[in-house]
Amino acid sequence: MSEWRRVKLSECCQSIADGDHQPPPKAETGIPFVTISNMTSTNQFDFGDTLFVPQQYYDSLDDKRKAKKNDILYSVVGSFGIPVFMKEDKEFVFQRHIAILRPNEEEIVPRFLFYTMLTRDFYAKADAAAIGAAQRTVSLTALRNMEIDIPAKEQQCRIVDILSAYDDLIDNNQKQIMLLEEATQRLYKEWFVELRFPGYESVRMVDGVPEEWEMVSLDDVIQKITTGLNPRKNFVLGKGNNYYVTIKNMGENNIYLDDKCDKIDDEAIEKINKRSDLRTGDILFSGIGTMGRVYLISIPTNNWNVSESVFTIRANDRITNEYLYLVLLSDDMKSYCDQNAHGAAQRGIRMADLRAYKFLLPPQGILNEFTMFANPLIKKVQSLQHQKKDLTEARDRLLPKLMSGEIEL
Length: 409
Prior knowledge:
CATH class of the largest domain: Alpha Beta
Number of domains: 2
CATH architecture of the largest domain: Alpha-Beta Complex
Shape: globular
Largest sheet: 4 strands, antiparallel
CATH topology of the largest domain: Adenine-n6-DNA-methyltransferase TaqI, Chain A, domain 2
Low-confidence stretches: none
Distance between the termini: 11 Å
Number of strands: 21
């Protein structure tokens, strides 16, 4: 560390600002408007579900509030401490809950600053600087005064080369996952929404439904549907070797069990397992707040439980896990949840309403044929997700050693 020097963020950045402090005008189309909820666990923005603002509003913003390539965006209110590195120029807007740092490239390699802000050490500094009770906030003044250690630029570049190699592999995995998921969902829509399944030309339609197909409710095709336990009434979070999985741990059809996941002790997990009895092949469905996230369990689950906001659904022998998974993932299910949600501050779908959801169930032969095509695609996605998790963990183990100078290059 002898060649490293300590600087404030304000000394290595051209500017440190945040988004607009006034609510932006909304539009049907235009420039995406992102919030902290669009910042993913893989430190990227998900632009798939955003509101929009007019182009004129975006054009009127100060340049330092517009994200550019090599900027770092950083959540500073509520769920603070999430950095996102801008790999390319993209037009979007955000509010004061997100800060934007523009590195001075003569002082610091932009991606090195991103990796610095990704470390636990930097998060601890942000946590110490955060103020407020109901919604903790890292002020721009505190952010500008936070100190980091940086080596010479040549060493910064070497560190970035090592860590970015992991990120490139992670990104490549994610792209493959997206393509496979799109292919699986296209197959589902073609067969069961557009009804262009094998042999459809010779099947008689009765009231718009193929003959011998059934309209069933979710309740007709499941062994059970339960929710997890409320920790306030049943156990204490924060200790033990067992995971307590909430909606925040459910990404896009994936589960993220990491250091930010709450833990529970062995006594609690024994109590929980008597109720939830999670198994490989069960499906998790987020039911409150962020509704409609779906995960088909493919890993051992004896040391984790889900929260009361997550439904565990187990299929019976009338349906395959793969078909039920895609039914729950469908646009029709998302629309159904939205139309039947209850609550104001935090909307959610009730178990009774979820049980009542109706959909088409094909004959066993069609179901088995679809599963034969869908199963390898879903398994490949799960394999890539596990690889991505392993790569992320390997990068995160290496990260603090490189960023502290413990490993010299």
